[in-house]
Amino acid sequence: MSARESWRYSAARLSNEVRRGAVTAMEAVESGWEGPAREWEARVHAVAHHDAAARAAGSRAAVKGPLAGVPVLVKDNLCTTDYPTTCASRILAGWRSPYDATVIERLRRAGAVVTGKGNMDEFAMGSSTEFSCYGPTRNPYDLTRVPGGSSGGPAAAVAYGLCPVALGSDTGGSVRQPAAFCGVFGLKPTYGRLSRYGLVAFGSSLDQVGIFARHAGDVALLFETLGGADPCDATTRRTAAPDVSGWDRGVAGLTFGWPANLWAEGVEREIIEGLEDAAARLERAGARRVTFDFMPGEFAVATYYLVATAEASSNLARFDGVRYGFRHDDSSDLRALYTRTRTGGFGPEVKRRILLGTYVLSAGYYDAYYLTAQRARTRIRREYDQAFEKCDFMLLPAAPTLPFRLGEKTEDPLAMYLSDIFTIGANLAGTPGLTVPVGMTPEGLPRAVQLLGREDGEPELLRAGRAIEVGGEPARLGRETEREFAWPSKR
Ligand code: GLN
């Protein structure tokens, strides 16, 4: 393959080529823009901000580290000095961060280049990337369908070929659900393993930066690069992050939970077929299935929409027209400045969350809602702990449906909220989850499953993800990965 075709490489392969001088960092970064983006970006709209001069500067500065020359699209809620950071919200229009998020700093220190900012639902609230002030992102496998959300831009970009890896954020599923809809890997790490410093806060006790990639090995590579304690984020853990270097070791001897009660109803047939396919691959690779019932996701969804909105209403109080971005200029006094700025700056979904969050925290309702939700959260965490006494990881859907059509759920917030029914629990529990693609439906839509692990269970998740990626064939575990990704065809 030539430098022009290097967008097809995995991040691991690409950085090798750059380190040995076969491809320059500039060629590595531009190949995605000159090739697949020409064909797809105008129709998919995965990118919210890009800037050729910033890419060129980034490419020139790229060091020969483990991610040398690897382009990375990062969600528009991660602070970067070289692009605007707006959370796809009018209220942050044009805002530029004076500093890089810790994960961005670590990317650059490893030689990676930020290739742009990914489109998203405003302030990461949503499951379809339709709530962006820049307009929606579309699913590259079917342009009439959503890419999932809220990190739909980064997920779609990795799927169509702009970059081999990308960063998103996952508060209730916003990495794992779009990864499933776009047919790529998506990791939500254990809470506290990746720094949140410079990630614009949504629900601080739930938010984690997440990783998109086309191959299990690339997820491991990014996790190794980004993980670890950060003095700027007091919620990061001081102990060393789990060692994921054994991602290609296979799954012989591991047990996986099969909580089939969760898909007894309300889950599309193609999703269940994907689960059966993944389970068969894991068994072929030597893992053992244990069947048990697990807590239905409805409890987690109900709890989440109290905890997440409470935290969001508090976190979003800082956007008042005084310090950041957009300011309503027709404001006679301070109160009018706040009101008009927030009325004009936030979109409807964000306003809905702020209202709900303020309500559940209000004096008269705090005990009934917020406190009850905190108690429920403790119970949920216990359910997860108990499940992982029975198995090394669980296999379950990432989402109950295949990618849905644009506009299908925008008028029905509850239907939208339910697309995270399988992902939200792990955020409440603080435990990791990995979306793994498992082929395509006959109509050409990606199929995927989710693996949930115990705290610091990333090594098992990646071993299992790799085993599924290679069809459960142990002989292929350590092989080159490039050919195993199915690209979207022209549409
Ligand atoms: N869809 C969920 C929400 O809207 C989760 C979002 C996320 O993970 N950022 O809150």
How is this structure best described in words?
With 491 residues, this protein is an alpha/beta fold. The protein is 37% helix and 12% strand. The mean pLDDT is 96. The chain has an eleven-stranded mixed β-sheet with strand order 1-3-2-4-6-5-10-11-9-7-8, sandwiched between helices. The protein has two domains: 3-294 and 378-484, Amidase signature (AS) domain (Amidase signature (AS) enzymes, Alpha-Beta Complex), CATH 3.90.1300; 297-376, no CATH class. The chain is globular, with a radius of gyration of 21 Å. It binds glutamine. Glutamine is lined by residues 124-127, 150, 169-174, 202, 308, 420.
- C-alpha end-to-end distance: 24 Å
- Which molecules are bound besides the chains? glutamine
Number of strands: 11
Global shape:
globular
Could you name the CATH homologous superfamily of the largest domain? Amidase signature (AS) domain
CATH-defined architecture of the largest domain: Alpha-Beta Complex
Oligomeric status of the shown chains?
Answer: single chain
Helix-strand sequence: HHHEHEHEHEHEEHEHEHHHHEHHEEH
Strand content: 5-15%
> Which blocks of ≥5 consecutive residues have pLDDT under 50?
none
- For the record, the count of structural domains works out to 2
Question: In which range does the helix fraction lie?
Answer: 25-40%
Task: Please report the first level of CATH classification, the CATH class of the largest domain.
Answer: Alpha Beta
How is the CATH topology of the largest domain named? Amidase signature (AS) enzymes
Side by side, the strands of the main sheet go: 1-3-2-4-6-5-10-11-9-7-8
How many helices? The count is 16
Helix/strand class: alpha/beta
Rg computed from alpha carbons, rounded to a whole number of angstroms: 21 Å
Major sheet details: 11 strands, mixed
